[in-house]
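@channel anyone free to eyeball this complex?
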Amino acid sequence: MPLIEMQGLTKIYRAGAIDVPALEQIDLSIESGEFLSIMGPSGSGKSTLMNILGCLDVPTAGTYYLAGDDVSQLDRDQRAEVRNKKIGFVFQGFNLLPRINAVKNVELPLIYGGVKTVPRREAAMAALSLVGLSDRGDHLPSQLSGGQQQRVAIARALVNDPEIILADEPTGNLDTRTSNEIMMVFRRLNRDRSITFVLVTHDPEVGDVTDRRILIRDGRIEGDERRTGDEY
Amino acid sequence: MLNPLDGGKIAIGALRVNVLRSLLTMLGIMIGVGAVIVMVAIGAGARDMIGVQIRSIGSNLILVIPGATVTGGARLGSGSVHTLKSTDAEAIAKECPAVKLTAPIWGDVNQVVYGNRNWRTRITGTTEDNFLIREWPIRRGRMFTPEEQKRAAKVAVLGLTVVENLFGDTDPLGKMIRMKSVPFTVVGVLDRKGQSPRGDDQDDAVFVPLKTSQYRLFGTPFPDEIQAIMVQAKDVSLIPDAQKQIDELLTRRHKIGRHQEKDFTVRNLTEILETAQKSLNIMTTLLGAIAAISLLVGGIGIMNIMLVSVTERTREIGIRMAVGARSGDILSQFLIEGVVLSITGGLIGTALGILAAFAFARTSGWPALIDPGTVLIAILFSAAVGVFFGFYPAFKASRLHPIEALRHE
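replying in thread with the prediction:
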């Protein structure tokens, strides 16, 4: 059974009296351990797809199974629970809380997961060391470089041992060298810890390093390319 | 689910980001709670003082004096008629069911001499019941006896101020003092009584048997005339009954016709103090209203700042929601912030209020009583203000859509 199974997924936004379709009849299946990218120009619906994949939003129609559970009709709090337990997010703008240090930022999902203080701190430190920042735990985000901030965000995304990590333009705010570093981190986590990665991007260079590319245009899947053979 | 300890830490962390703003937000609550504490402390102190004064003049006290106090026409003041007699006092004690004790009074201000010292004070002729009515015990020696009363014995009981002024460190018991050249033996010293509600020193007094005062010291224009009768009712609730019974009895005894003016006045002394207490209660209510308004304004201040804070922190809310915070988690985070704000404000207000109450007590001489129950209620109430006024901003925060919140700049 695939990790993600979407069938006939449709999202329609209502702007005044007009219905604006953002996604139309998306069928998508993702296996556990995949490393894929969703690509498309802005306005193509790729962000909408990521929001629904991340249980931040619900589809207007269609079904979405995540790890065997239908998550397309969940209410707010149930979706929060799914996000907390099964999904990790990495954003373009890092989205760290500026007033608390790196380790506390990483702890954040565990706080809402009800994990006690000591195991919480341990898990956060372990996640930080996975991204090579175990010595930066007490730094505030403003005291870290962009690449380091994004690595803290990655640690936060994986601290809950999620089924899938969704990254929305993860290298959009970074220079080429740092972008490559971040992509290496993703790659390593995917390979060593079999975490499923979905990268949403309009950057072909990011798309090029993934094993599978899904192209979206005007709310429909236009292409689904798999790359086999050479490892990155 | 967010546990309360983590919620508290998050709230305190958020409030410490901008200490000045947090303090200013608390200001209304501080002033409100401080005002409540000061008001209750001073109110309780004043009430206590009035209670002490009421007890010091004697409980359930009624005063009968000659003459009328009705206005109109050219009139002589009260005390200008000479119709009240000590037999009236005895009759009131005997015939009025609501009356417990009575004591007749005949006295004047005069010089008291001991050796080469002298002192001007009020000399009151009365009976032993006077001291029972006024709950005024003998400290040393004894009270004059009914037998001494009957034979107009030349014995005196002194108040402490007189003792201090005439005798200094000498023991006054058994000593001879002179009043209007008449020698008296000091048989007793009264306990300290303190100030009367009017501010008189009640200990500045000498007491002698009624007949002694009437016949040996001051004389009376008419036989057995007295200046006043002190009456104690059996109970506070019986004071109006007692007044009515005294009125009827004296009207009958003095043979006053239906349309004649009465030659006596019955006054309820505690009434005066009750009036004072009532005006104090009105003042307390008024101050309470001001404090309530201040708490209300403080609460609105908290709501205002929290609404700003929710808007400013929309992105933070979005991030928290993205990583799994439920609506309830966000709601409780902001509610806890509101409550921490208001309770901290309440605690600071309490401390300031206690300081202010003591400062007031020190400068004005009025006592201030801090009641722990009031302090607790004030703090609980400020917490309630935090919950009430924090709820709307917190609810607003909890209903934000995670995607829109994340996009917020």
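from a first look: Chain A is about 35% helix and 30% strand.
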